[in-house]
Structure formats: structure tokens, C-alpha cells
Amino acid sequence: MSVNIVPTSPTGPSGKPVKTVDMHIGDAAPGCKKRDPILVVDGVRRSFGGLTAVDVDHVEVPRGAITALIGPNGAGKTTLFNLLTGFDKPDSGAWTFDGRPIAGVPAFKVARMGQIRTFQLTKALGLLTVMDNMLLGAKGQSGENFFRALLPFLWRKQETANEAKALDLLTRFKLDAKKDDYAASLSGGQRKLLEMARALMSDPTLVMLDEPMAGVNPALTQSLLDHILNLKAQGMTVLFVEHDMHMVRHIADWVIVMAEGKVVAEGDPHEVMKNPAVIDAYLGQHHDEDIGEDQPEHIEALKELLDDER
Amino acid sequence: MIDWGAIFSNAAVELISPTTAAYALAALGLAVHFGYTGLLNFGQAGFMALGAYGYAISILTFGFPVWGAFLVGVGASVIFALILGIPTLRLRADYLAIVTIAAAEIVRLLFTTNTFAAVTGSANGLSGYKNEFAALNPLAEGSYGFGPFENNAYDTWLRIVAWSIVILAALLVWQVMRSPWGRVIKGIREDEDAVRALGKNVYAYKMQSLILGGVFGTVAGMIFALPRAVVPSNYQTTLTFFIYAILLLGGAATVLGPIIGSMIFWVLLSFFSGFIARAVEAGWLPFMTAIQGGQLRFILVGVAIMLIVIFRPQGIFGNKKELAFVR
Amino acid sequence: MKPNQTARSFAPRMLVILFGVLLAALTLSTLSIGPAHADEIGTEYDFRLSGNVQFDGDPVEGVLISAEGNGYEAEVNTDAEGKWTIGVPEKATYTVTLDEDTLPEGVVVAEGDNVFEAQFDLISTVSVNYFLGEGVRETTSFFDQFVNRFFNGLNFGLLLALAAIGVSLIFGTTGLSNFAHAELITFGGLMTLVFSVTLGLPIWLAILIAIALSGLLGFSLDAVIWKPLRRKGVAVIPLMIVSIGLSLALRYTYQFFFGGSTMQLPGAGMADLKFGPISLSPIDLASMGISVIVLLLVAFFLLRTRIGKATRAVSDNPSLASASGIDVDNVIRIVWVVGAALAGLSGVLWAYFRPGVSWDMGFQMLLLVFAAVTLGGLGTAFGALVGSLIVGLFVELSTLWLPSDMKYVGALVVLILVLLFRPQGILGRKERIG
User: What is the rounded distance in angstroms from the CA atom of residue A300 to the CA atom of residue B23?
Assistant: First the structure.
């Protein structure tokens, strides 16, 4: 277990994470109400060509907890992420963040409201230094206006403050020694850490992590888990997509299961895996969905070719 | 047999010629677009044409003063940048390339057509707009400079103004690119979705970059027009390609690269064409005519573009690590 | 950040206004009669074309005379004495045209044509005189003009499609926007010229040889330049810039060897046949026939043959296709050969359509090819066909309203408008983010 610099410890005396409980109202069924939801999704649909990638009737994400979004490949998890963060537009549907409707709000405004996401394939800005990557995350910088950019004395002070904050975060994520290196020189796991640290520069209320563990060296896994737990300890809400069930069980307070675009189950991480709908979803998974995710028309010619050979 | 002195001094003249300054400024604009922001603007010739025509038409047709004509050109390029940017800046990079190249051709064809000949002079272009600029010359009649850099008062005045503008523009780029604004711009070059996810209005930043670089191109067009006439055939797509050659030569994401690149480009081009012309005259190249010698230059520019991109993509001044390239 | 937000919200409205102004300018331009009053032009040059336009001994003022040749173009209106002068840069052959639309009603060029080939020999001034007489010019009805333009546009669109499919397939399989495609087009025209005119082979054989050589050029370009660059892992945009350099180098190499003049292929300028209101030359008919047959063959290749299907699979998803055991390098090689051969054929047909073969003929067409490919949707072969037909028809039909020297403007404006409203092109598919 790594050392936690944050005052509030995310783990209990036994070394196990402290789970948040009793978040829902009524049965833990798909679309059940939460006591204090931060994100409420209603009737969101998105189809690509003929295939419906996302078709969610109702789902709520509890505030102040770590929620995992799981499901087999092609279940529409990333597409739902893209829709909720404004990176993609749904065919229909509405959703609120912190009580404010944000359907149709562009991605950058969603981010400014405090809902920050990361990407499945890391998007560290390779030819910027680690420090510049961090500084880019800070909100409300006056030097980001073109005309004020010309007059350094207008933004120098804010820049220095941001640098101090960035250095603090980098130290926590053990990247401070690399602050002047190009992000391209970092390892895959370090880039994931950088992306998470960068997201924290804006003091978000909801952090959405798309497969934070994918491609990460096992040695770094534990520290990444601790960082996610720390987010909760600091009062942030976390929603993350993950495949590793062991990890989900370890840190998630609540699990939402998606299959073929729909929410098929919800509940406590230990209970939800016993749900027959979840087992069905994983067993009934089509192997070819693995590759052509969400874009069935892109493999039309290949299918024809394979048909010929049969 | 060959007058090497003349070849060298003719080449040296290009070092500080207004044309070199104009290309340097236009390339600096492209550095903002392509090197820093990752925008594939292939319409820099269109921005230059707007500057040249905006300036010339304002003076000849409307009798504007120099500053008024300058503002007309700049205003035209801002509008042009908006027209280009609004439909394309949300789309993939190659769409911007195709739209900008098309828009620059539209501009050139509109200046070439006989329909507006009364204002644009159609294929023959415009001339006779230099007096207003010359009248501002504070230098007394006479000759300034030394050796190949000796010029009359007007030409010296033109060089001073042209290079002052280039230096100011370079300082401006240097300053904004080390500010938070520049950080966002460079972030967009690397991955615009990541920057968007951090709450930056990527579209607005790209638009600002397009306008800034475009205005540089427009002012470059005015500098380019002052030592000669404005002729539409000067503003073909090839002009944009030459400016790309200069940018790549110097280094796409650098401030000094476009300027030094322009100097090297023009000195070498002048040296080469001077040498070929005299070598043909002297009978050294019996298989070639003087006209073919001129074409050989362009072949070499084309080959040079390919070789630089393949073997030294960061240019002369670029940092090998901060590979001045957009993926 | 405040100013950015306002700029953004006003942007669409601004754009509508801007396009409105542009369209208004284009419309106005067709209403106003050529306002040029100069009776002398190009006086800075040493060589001059000049003449006198008179009818029944009286001078005719305001007649539009244009000269074109050797890459130079100029035009002038006759003055009050009916005189005109056009200066030209070099001693070469110029085509001098009297615009009959600018003659007074009831007056036509009586003897000979209104087009005159003027040649400089030893003298520096050539007189070009037209003899006018009374007569009625045949004016065609709007409908007839429309039908004629329509078929011209179809012809142009089809030959554009031949080149566009190559661009589209290359883009689809390799991600390269190939600017040097223009030079593949020119290559077809130039090789036909060499084998038919210079070496005296029959034209059909010359064309076949030219197409075969074009295919070979495509093969060599892929083998010598593109394949090694792919191996090196050079990204898409540097590749595109390499193709720009290659385009520049090849184009001026052509000029180096073939000079700057325009040369005709055998059979160009054949008389038109009349089919009711439609007048088309046998060459136009052959051109359309060949285009349609070849396009059908390409469609068959892509839809029915193994290698064609593999091509589409690579175009859809290269890494997946590669993982499924398709030899991607082989597919790309075939795409280059086929694309270049089609471009070569397109160049031959373009040489008859323009008419004439010149060193930059492909480059003149390149933007329209790109416009067609973008309109149809980048990377879809059938989109390229549809886009080409639209561009071809638009270019030709727009001359009914626009002055002919602005016919490309209309097509390029449409390109920008389509991108505004349907960015993925007409047949393209939406991009997925994330």
C-alpha cells in the first residue's frame, strides 16, 4: 500500500477501502432512484447505421461515491461516456448534471461545469512538457485570452499559483521528477497518471475515467487504485468504465451493468455479479463485436469477402 | 567566363529584399496555422491576394490613405478566415486543406475574371498605387547602404518598413506562443479532443489562430505588392506551396525558422538561376535552354520539399524532439 | 474567453450574410456588361496584335477582342475608331477571338470565322482584321443551350470521375490526399501525344500504350516512394506534403521537356454532329462511351472480384483487414496501378475535352477532382463518381448564368456550402469520436 499524502485516508483500519452504502431508494434494479444523484440520464439513444449503440431509459449516478460502469465489449459504455460529456450527440434523450440540464451542451462547457473525463486511449499531449500538460488543465486562466496573452504581467501571478498547484499534484502522482520532460517520453501507465492529474487541475466535481487501468503496468495498478480512492476521499464523485472485475469489486461502491446499449443491472459490486442478467450479458457476448465496435458498416466488405470463402 | 561576382551579388540582394520579407511573413503566418495549431491552411496565397488587392483597390478606386488601405486588406482577410473557418474547423484536418485551397482559387479567379475588370484590372492586374506609400518616406533623396545592399531612398524605406513588420510579427508570435494562449494552441495541435475535455473552446482558438496567421499572410501580400504590380497569376496555388517549402526548410513550429528559411530559399534560388542562366550562356550546359534552366529551379524546389519532409521534418531550426509535425 | 463566445454565437449568421454578399456579387456580375474601356492592353510588351473593326466603313466601338496563347490571356474593347491593340509577351501563336455578342444587332463576322490564329514571324506587330457583314446570328433557345451544356457537363463529369476514383481509392487505402494525381492525369495526355504525334502510331494504340505506361508509373511511384514511406511510418500529413513536392517536381519536369505550349491530339476539334438540339462531336460521344464502360468495369472490379472486395475492406478498416489475412501492401499496389491508369485515361479524355495537351493540364483539373471526391465523401469510390457528375454538370451548367471565366468558381463555392451542411459528403459516413 502506498503512502497517502492526502489527510483523509481512503482506506479503513483494515486496509480495505471504506465503501459508501445505502445510496439507492427501493430495490437495486436497473434505473433505480438514488438518494443524492449527481448525474441523471433519461431516454438517451444513439444509433450508428442500423445498430443501436446506446439505449438507456433511466439511470442515476450517486454523488460522492465511486460508480463502475461495466459490460461486455460493444455494450455502449464508451459511447455513453461520449454522449454524456458532449463529445457525441444522441438521437434523442436528456440528462442533468448537478441538477442542470446539459443535453446539447458542447464538451468544453460540460468540462467547465466540473464534469471532467479521461479517454480510453490516453491523450497525453506528447509534444508538450508534463508541466504544460498540467497547466492546460487549470480553469479560468486569464492568459488564455489572446490579447491578455500579450501582456505577461496580467497573468504571471496566476501562472505561478497554477504551477505550484500542478507541482503539488505531480508530487502526489510521483511525476514531479518528469515535469520538464515531453509527455511523449512517459510510459503508458505514467501517461494515465498524468491524464488523471491533469483532470484534477480544474477541481472537478465528477471525474469520468474511461478504462483507467487499460494498458497499465501491474506495478502501477495499486497506486492508480489509491488515487481513484483518494478522489472520493476528497469529496469528488467518480464514474469509471472497467473490465477488471477484481478491481471493480475492490473499489466501486456501486456498479451499473450495460449490455447491447441498455442498462441491464445495477447494484452493490458483490451482489450485482450474481444477477442472472449480468451473467447472460457476459456469456451471450458475440465475439465479432469485439472488433467492429459501434461501426458495423465499416466491415461490410470484409464480411462479403469472408462469405465468399465459406 | 562566368561573372561569379554578379551571381553572388544578385543572390546577396535577395537576403533583405522586400520579397524575402513578404515570404518570411507569410511563412510565419503558416507557422502559426500549421506548426503551432496543426491547421492545414493551403490558401495562404488567397490571404496574400486579398492583402495586395485590398490595398491596391482601396488606393486606386476609393482613394484611401495608406492606413485605410491597410485596414481594408486586414479586414478582408479576417472575413475570409471566418468564411473558411466556420464550415471547416469542426471537421477533420484534410477538409480544411481542400477548402482553403479551393477558396484561394476562388479569390484568384474572382480577381482574374473580366467581369470586375474595371476594379481589378482582370488578368493584367493593377499598378500605380505606390505614390501614397512613397509619400510617407522620411528619408531624403539619395542612396543608402553598401555593396549589393545599396538602394535608393524609396527602396530603402520599403525595406525598413517590410523588415520592421516582420520583426514585430516574430516578436508577437514568440510572446503569444509562450503564454497560456499558446499552450492551448499547441495542445490543440497534439490532440484537440483532450483540450476540449479540459474545458477549452477549441473551435474559438482555432479560429483565432486562423485569423492571426491569415492577417500575417495579408500583410505579406501588401509587402509583396509594393515593389511590383498586382497580377492575379502571382497568387496561384504554387505560391502557397513555395511558402510551405520555406516553412519546412526553417522549421514549422519555430519563430526564426520561417524568416531564415525565406532568406535561404531566396538567396539559393537567385544564386541558382543566376548560375544556370550564365552557364547556359557560356555553353556549359549545351542540352539546356535558358527557359529550361528556369524550370529546373522549380523541379529542385519540389524535390527539396520531399527530401526535407522525409529526412529532416523538424527543419533547420526545429527541435528534433519537438518534431515540428502534426500527425 | 468572452469575445470567443460571442464570435461563436454570431458566426452562423455572419456566414449567411457573407455568402449572401458573395452570391449577390456573382449575380450582379452577370447583369452588368463588361465595363472595361481600355482599347490598349499589355502595352508593356514588345509584340503587338492590333486591328480595326468596321462595318460598312463605319468604326464599331465596344467590340470585345480577346487573345489567348502560350499561357497568356488578355482582352480589350475597340475604341471610338474601332481600333484595338493587345500587347503580348512572346512571339508565339495566339488565338484571337471577336466576341460576336458585343457586335450591334444584325451584324456578324461575314467572311471566315470570329476566331483567328495569329502568328508572329519576323515582324513585331500582327494585324488581325475581321470583315463584318449583315446577317442574323443563330441564337439558340435557353432550353437548347441547357440540354447542350448538360451533355457537356455529363462528359466532363465522367472523365472527372475516372480521375476521382483513383484519388478516392488511394485516400481510402493509404490515407494520402495525393496532390501528384494531377501529374498522373497530365502523364496520360503527354504519352498519348508522344506516341501518336511524335512517333506516328495510330491514336487507339497510342492511348492504350499511354494507359499502360500510366499504370506502370503508378506502380513505380508506389514502389519507389510511397511504400518505403509507409514502412518508415510517415504520418498522413507529411505524406501529403511529400505528394505536393512530387507534384511540383513532376509538373516542371514535364514543362522542362515539353515546353509551355498547348499541343493538339489527332482528331481534336472534329466537327459536331447534330442530334436535335444537341451538338456533340464523335470524340465527345466516344469519350462518354469509354468513360461509362470503364466506370462499369471499375464497379464490377470493386463489387464482384476478390481483390476488389479486399480493396474495399482495406479502405474500410486497414488494421482489421490486415488482421484477417489480406495482403494490404498488395492491395495498395493494385490501387496505385489502377488509380494511375484511370488517371492516364482521364488525362487523354481531358486533352480532347479542353482541348489540348499541356504540362499543367492535370493541375488545372486537380481541384475539381478534389472537390468531387470531397463532395461524394472522402474515401468512398461511388461517392467520388456521384461527386464528379455533380461537379461536371455544375461547372458546365453554371456557364448559362456565370461568365465562362468564372465557371470553376461556382463549383468551388458549392464544395464549401456542402461541407457546411453535410460535412461527411453526400455518400460519406459520420466520424466516430473517442
Answer: 48
pLDDT tens digit sequence for C172-214: 888 888 999 999 999 999 999 999 999 999 999 999 999 999 9
Closest Cα to residue A271, out of A248, A295, A298?
A: A248
Q: What is the ipTM of this complex?
A: 0.86
Is B46 in contact with B79 (CB distance < 8 Å)? Answer: no
d(CA A271, CA B326): 48
Do the Cβ atoms of B160 and B21 come closer than 8 Å?
no
Digit-coded pLDDT (tens) for A226-250 = 889 999 999 999 999 987 777 888 8
Helix or strand holding residue A272 (H, E): helix A269-272
Interatomic CA distance for residues C174 and C321, integer angstroms: 13
Question: Any chain B CB within 8 A of the CB of C67?
Answer: no
Phi first, then psi: give them for residue C238, nearest 5 degrees: -55, -40
pTM above 0.90, yes or no: no
Which triple of cell numbers denotes residue B111? Answer: 480577381
> Which helix (H) or strand (E) segment is C314 a member of?
helix C306-316
Q: How many CB atoms lie within 10 A of CB B136?
A: 11
Residue with cell 468572452: C2
Residues of C with CB under 8 A from a CB of A: 1, 3, 306, 309-310, 312-313, 315-317, 320-321, 323-324, 326, 429-430, 432-434
**Chains with ≥3 CB–CB distances under 8 Å to A:** B, C
Read off the DSSP letter of residue A140: S
C-alpha grid cell, residue B117: 475588370
Note whether B303 contacts C412, CB cutoff 8 Å.
no
Alpha-carbon gap, residue A163 to C182, rounded angstroms:
51
Determine whether the interchain pair C34/B117 forms a contact, defined as Cβ–Cβ distance below 8 Å: yes
